[in-house]
Design goal:
mainly alpha
């Protein structure tokens, strides 16, 4: 599951076949997956925001 979330954040189970497989075997509930996905999405948003604020001025977009 860590590998699945490393590529991109997922909010819904059906966004990845690995997530569907884990969900079908009962390793987590839909609510657990959604809450974790929202947390990862927010964290990734702020990381990208920080990276953009540093990178864009270097290429003349800021």
């Amino acid at each position: 599951m860590i590998w699945t979330f490393a590529g991109a954040c997922k909010i819904f189970v059906y966004q990845s076949s690995v997530s569907i497989l884990g969900y079908s075997y009962g390793y987590f509930s839909g609510r657990d997956f959604f809450r974790f996905g929202v947390c990862v999405t927010v964290i990734e948003f702020f990381i990208v925001l920080l990276m953009v604020s540093q990178y864009w001025p270097l290429i003349g977009l800021g």
